[in-house]
Amino acid sequence: MHNLKHPAPVAFGGGIDRRSFLRLSAGAGVGLALAACGPGSSNAPGASGEQQQSQTGTGDTYDGPAVELAFWNGFTGADGPVMQDLVKQFSSEHDNIAVKMSTQEWADYYQKVPNAVSSGRGPDVGIMHIDQLATNAARNVIQPLDEVAEGLGLDPANFPDAVWNAGVYNDQRFGIPLDIHPLGLYYNKKLMQQAGLDPESPPQDMDSYMQALEALKGEGIQGHWMSPFPFTGVLQFQALIRQFGGDLFNTDATQATYNEGPGVEALTWMVDLVKEGHSPRDVGQDADHVAFQNDKNAFIWNGIWQIAAYRDTDGLEWGVAELPAIGGEQAAWAGSHNFVLMQQRRPEPNKLQAGAVFIKWINEHSLEWAKGGQVPANQMVRDMPEFQELEEQSTFAKELDYVHFPPALPGIGDAMATMDTAVNEAVLLQKEPQQALDDAAATADKLLEENAKKYGA
To answer: Do the Cβ atoms of 404 and 331 come closer than 8 Å?
Structure first.
């Protein structure tokens, strides 16, 4: 395994930094592995005779007595102050609802929340990434939101199908999407010009992309630095496998399928960029990002969260585009922040209704959130002229029709993490793509089987 270096953290997915992402992907369920094993276990976080809270009166207004809501999240990056300003504005407009926001690193958050809920000291409202919802639902950390969504009048048509459907586990809704943060193509205009390419016309398919890389190579420029790490190599793999017509798991997520033909094609393309000299060998963590900022790397597939970093880089001439359809089909990796309501030992209907009002208000005011570097999940916000004027964010929004999320399955993060090893070994030229994927898929299959038993699926 490549020795991990430790440059300055790079913001990821709305406040999660690169190190936190690696910790999460190495064991997404570690903070949830408490005494309980399955849904409804008496030892599960939030489990008690009162765990199924009443959701009556969850309309879109709150006229009850004054309440204070504890709102926890992991927005420790530049997005933190943006959310804090929204919280302050909400509180100023609602005399009977005060929201107290608490922020910690995402990896710490996902460990702390289940323990806090189990002890009866959990928050009222929280944010969770979409691939964490099923695990926390199975652990009784978060509560169903079907009646909340209905009471708020949330229309599924206002949200992309992929993100709306990904918030459902066991036929119940557990998340209300705030945003979607996809992977896109950043391109260095200065390097494109140097290679005789049109800096306003980035390549969008396999042929034009490879032609551009060859032109760059002719000028001594390695045009696509391939990362062997989850960030961003594995994210690229997850986009590419779907571009080649494949998927990560079978229909019921009982078996890994990323080692089948499309996955092998995807990883082979990534490895060939290294073998053919379009990427240095042994790219260090974040080296692709740093090289892009320093006019050494022409193309980088990275998330929407890097907009601010590149905008603040002196002298960098850059643009964004949708991911090129290397495999022939349009597909993109994406993450999403979802609002959740925590299970409570002693349900408080007033707080439940106030929390629902807070969620809807933030959702409807997510234009300011978009300015911080996100795509709002709410279509009504994306249709606003002010959002369309956000050039980079509106470009990323074009991908929402074909973004993909992991299956809504408890413990799916553990099975997903097996891809990290496969991509690492193949891109570092330690194993052939087929062998690396086969070995990882065998481990993933065992984890999927263990998780089915652990969570009672």
So the answer is: yes
Q: Which residue has the tokens 């439940």?
A: 352
Host H or E run for residue 403: strand 403-404
Let me know: does 449 contact 255? Beta carbons within 8 Å.
no
Residue-by-residue pLDDT tens, the chain, 457 positions: 333 333 333 333 344 444 444 444 433 433 333 222 233 333 345 544 344 444 444 677 899 999 999 999 999 988 999 999 999 999 999 999 999 999 999 999 999 999 999 999 999 999 999 999 999 999 999 999 999 999 999 999 999 999 999 999 999 999 999 999 999 999 999 999 999 999 999 999 999 999 999 999 999 999 999 999 999 999 999 999 999 999 999 999 999 999 999 999 999 999 999 999 999 999 999 999 999 999 999 999 999 999 999 999 999 999 999 999 999 999 999 999 999 999 999 999 999 999 999 999 999 999 999 998 999 999 999 999 999 999 999 999 999 999 999 999 999 999 999 999 999 999 999 999 999 999 999 999 999 999 999 998 5
User: What DSSP line would sit under 50-104, residue for residue?
Assistant: T-S---TT--S---SS-EEEEEEE---STHHHHHHHHHHHHHHH-TTEEEEEEE-
DSSP conformational letter for 255: S
Q: What's the predicted TM-score (pTM) here?
A: 0.88
* Total number of residues shown for the chain: 457
**26-178+336-404 with 182-334+417-444: one CATH topology?**
yes
CATH of 182-334+417-444, one of 1.20.1250.20, 3.40.50.2000, 3.40.190.10, 3.30.450.20: 3.40.190.10
Q: Which fold has domain 26-178+336-404?
A: D-Maltodextrin-Binding Protein; domain 2 (3.40.190)
Q: How much helix, strand and coil, in percent to the nearest 5, is found in the chain?
A: 45, 15, 40
If phi over 0 gives left and psi between -120 and 50 gives alpha, with beta otherwise, what is residue 398? alpha
Give yes or no for a contact between 137 and 40, defined as CB atoms under 8 angstroms apart.
no
**Residues 246, 230: Cα–Cα separation, whole Å:** 19
Task: Tell me the domain boundaries of the chain.
Answer: 26-178+336-404, 182-334+417-444
Euclidean distance between the first and final Cα of the chain, in Å? 33
- Residue 15 CA to chain centroid, in angstroms? 11
